[in-house]
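Bumping my old thread because nobody answered last time. Still need a sequence for this structure:
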């Protein structure tokens, strides 16, 4: 079977003529197909009224036809167990919703069709225009699985079936050709639900004007959970259910058993399987090592070591180039712009702040590339399975691992992901401890502080000490999350216990198009979301650092000149005096008694305060403050300015080992992200938990940083 490689590139898109919804099980390749169809023409938002991520994009089906493609959350059936799965049911049952599809594309794993067919047959019975994509055709071929698509189509009522390998684009042209044509709904049901509750189903169908009995049956099954139903409609359905003495759980079990019996009959006629499966045997041999109770953790620890070594080793050259570029631009503007407030705002405020975050894009991108590779290869699912054993000992559900791992990118979507946890105690504890996981916003803070005090030396020929220190910070956050979860387990009592049900996907080479798309999307989000905050903070900080109450700045400057006239480097020292007596200096001096035991001065205090908007603002804040307090002849890079900062009390560097590690620990534990607090409030529907979270994390950060500084100094 020949293959062709298709590169995801943005096509020229006109007005969408149809709406396509991609539906499928997790790990079926649904999102890979979405990326293949839409390329860079994607946008991410939330579904109305919920925090579930909504991914949509545009694609061309031909010269005269375009489509909007919606990637619905992965689900195993239309009986939802989580908010993500509930969204699928809401979209497919509510014909008034904007996302209601003209065509549903059901994506199934061709190498494991039994798993997907429950959902496919349910979609058939909902009278939806359906196209079945049998994805991962290459894996099915390797396992010796042959599917008679013509026979399968006939047994499923004549629906179009397309065999694909979405990872390299094989079958894409055929799929687009099918979608260009009119796809009609299947008239005959795969499984007739009417005998389950004849009177109630018939009455619901008539009252709610549904085209099939199965749609009416689903209204009765999910009356309370369907958000598009009005209270009056829910009462009406409840009355029909009560009158018919319907037991939804019992009917679901009966329906599912009958469907699987019929599905088995269909697949026996349409699929030919080999007697042995060598690929499954190979996967089992690999899993024996990577999920082992001892070797599995060591392998995971080794992979983490390589990841953090790569972040420092691979990013050093592009970071140096960005550093030099911003230094040259700053120097050029200083020499060529006319002196004035706007020029100083640009050179001393905006440019250092933005440069302080752009320099870390290479490290952020490398982190996301490596995480995407681990996810694409199937290894990350093994990590979830492996860590489940550890999670249970501290009172968490195995599903808690997914939000915790997601927290390495950002705590906000990670906390949203807790909606897949059924047990309320497990979900609450997961929400509470997820911000301890070191997100990408902490990475700029970690790397610049580590670079200041940890030598760039190697041990054992390949282990970089800076990379080792960075990995230590990530492990520190994970340990804090685990210990905090254990404490909450002892405080919050519940009889109901959680459980983990998941499938381990087959191992495969990462699809580089998916890796690239994820990296570009996440890096772009990091730059623009952080950039907006940093730009605003930089402007505010420059104003606070350039002006002071009354004439205090002028008085302090004149007094210093009178006492130190003729002193060397007088301009530099006058700049520091003016900064110290500015609004920013006044605020910092007010904070200084509280943070002085941690080894921090008022400048660091301003950075701590401003970074409550977002953690990464720390670097931009330091860049802005040191720009205002430096002369034009100084080095124009944030790293060199922080290295040159002197502690007047000791005469040594301000950022010595004790101060740097105290700051690292503070940022590892502190809740410094207003967006995270907002999403916790939304998810718990109360200010109680975010305020407790803020208090606990701030207190832990302060005490831990104090102990570190006092121990090392």
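Sorry it took so long. Here it is:
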């Amino acid at each position: 079977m020949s293959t062709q490689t298709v590169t995801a590139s943005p096509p020229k898109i006109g007005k969408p003529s149809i709406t396509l919804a991609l539906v499928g099980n997790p790990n079926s390749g649904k999102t890979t197909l979405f990326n293949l169809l839409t390329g860079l023409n994607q946008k991410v938002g939330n579904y109305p009224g919920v925090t579930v991520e909504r991914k949509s994009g545009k694609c061309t089906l031909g010269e005269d036809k375009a489509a909007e493609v919606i990637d619905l959350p992965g689900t195993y059936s239309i009986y939802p167990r989580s908010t993500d799965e509930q969204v699928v049911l809401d979209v497919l049952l509510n014909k008034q919703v904007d996302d209601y599809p003209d065509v549903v594309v059901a994506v199934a794993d061709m190498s494991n069709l039994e798993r997907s067919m429950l959902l496919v047959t349910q979609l058939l019975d909902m009278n939806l225009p359906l196209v079945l994509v049998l994805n991962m055709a290459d894996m099915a071929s390797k396992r010796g699985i042959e599917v008679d698509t013509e026979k399968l189509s006939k047994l499923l009522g004549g629906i179009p079936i397309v065999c694909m390998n979405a990872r390299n684009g094989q079958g894409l042209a055929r799929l687009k050709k099918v979608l260009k044509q009119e796809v009609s709904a299947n008239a005959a049901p795969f499984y007739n639900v009417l005998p389950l509750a004849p009177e109630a189903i018939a009455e619901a169908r008539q009252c709610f004007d549904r085209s099939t009995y199965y749609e009416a049956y689903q209204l009765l099954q999910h009356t309370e959970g369907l958000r598009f139903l009005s209270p009056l409609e829910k009462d009406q359905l409840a009355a029909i259910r009560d009158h018919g003495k319907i037991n939804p759980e019992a009917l679901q079990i009966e329906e599912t058993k009958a469907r699987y019996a019929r599905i088995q009959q269909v697949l026996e006629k349409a699929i030919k399987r080999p007697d042995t499966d060598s690929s499954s045997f190979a996967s089992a041999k690999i899993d024996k090592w990577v999920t082992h109770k001892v070797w599995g953790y060591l392998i995971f620890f080794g992979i983490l070591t390589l990841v953090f070594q790569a972040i420092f080793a691979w990013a050093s050259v592009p970071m140096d180039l960005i550093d030099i570029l911003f230094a040259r631009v700053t120097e050029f503007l200083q020499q060529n712009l006319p002196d004035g407030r706007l020029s100083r705002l640009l050179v001393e405020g905006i440019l250092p702040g933005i440069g302080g975050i752009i320099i870390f894009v290479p490290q952020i991108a490398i982190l996301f590339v490596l995480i995407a590779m681990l996810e694409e290869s199937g290894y990350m699912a093994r990590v979830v399975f492996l860590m489940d054993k550890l999670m249970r000992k501290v009172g968490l559900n195995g599903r808690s691992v997914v939000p915790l791992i997601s927290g390495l990118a950002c705590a906000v979507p990670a906390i949203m992901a807790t909606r897949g946890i059924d047990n309320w105690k497990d979900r609450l504890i997961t929400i509470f401890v997820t911000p301890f996981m070191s997100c990408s916003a902490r990475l700029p803070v970690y790397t610049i502080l580590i670079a200041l005090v940890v030598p760039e030396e190697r041990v054992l020929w390949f282990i970089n000490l800076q990379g080792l220190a960075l990995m230590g910070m990530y492990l520190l956050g994970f340990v804090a999350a685990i210990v905090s979860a254990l404490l909450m387990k002892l405080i919050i009592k519940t009889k109901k216990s959680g459980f983990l049900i998941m499938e381990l996907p087959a191992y495969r080479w990462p699809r580089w198009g998916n890796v690239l798309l994820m990296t570009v999307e996440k890096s772009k989000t990091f730059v623009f979301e952080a950039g907006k905050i940093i730009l605003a903070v930089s402007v505010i900080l420059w104003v606070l650092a350039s002006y002071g109450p009354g004439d205090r700045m002028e008085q302090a400057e004149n007094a210093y000149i009178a006492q130190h006239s003729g002193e060397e480097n007088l301009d530099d020292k006058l700049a520091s005096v003016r900064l110290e007596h500015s609004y920013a200096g006044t605020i910092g001096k007010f904070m200084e008694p509280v943070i002085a035991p941690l080894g921090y001065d008022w400048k660091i205090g301003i950075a701590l305060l401003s970074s409550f908007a977002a953690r990464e603002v720390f670097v931009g804040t330091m860049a802005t403050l040191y720009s205002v307090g430096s002369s034009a002849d100084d080095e124009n890079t944030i790293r060199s300015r922080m290295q040159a900062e002197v502690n007047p009390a000791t005469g040594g560097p301000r950022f010595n080992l004790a101060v740097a590690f105290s700051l690292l620990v503070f940022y590892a534990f502190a809740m410094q992200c207003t967006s995270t607090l907002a999403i916790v409030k939304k998810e718990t529907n109360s200010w109680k938990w975010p305020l407790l979270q803020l208090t606990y994390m701030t207190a832990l950060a302060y005490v831990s940083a104090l102990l570190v500084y006092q121990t090392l100094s």
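DSSP finds 30 helices and eleven strands in the chain. Let me know if any region looks off to you.
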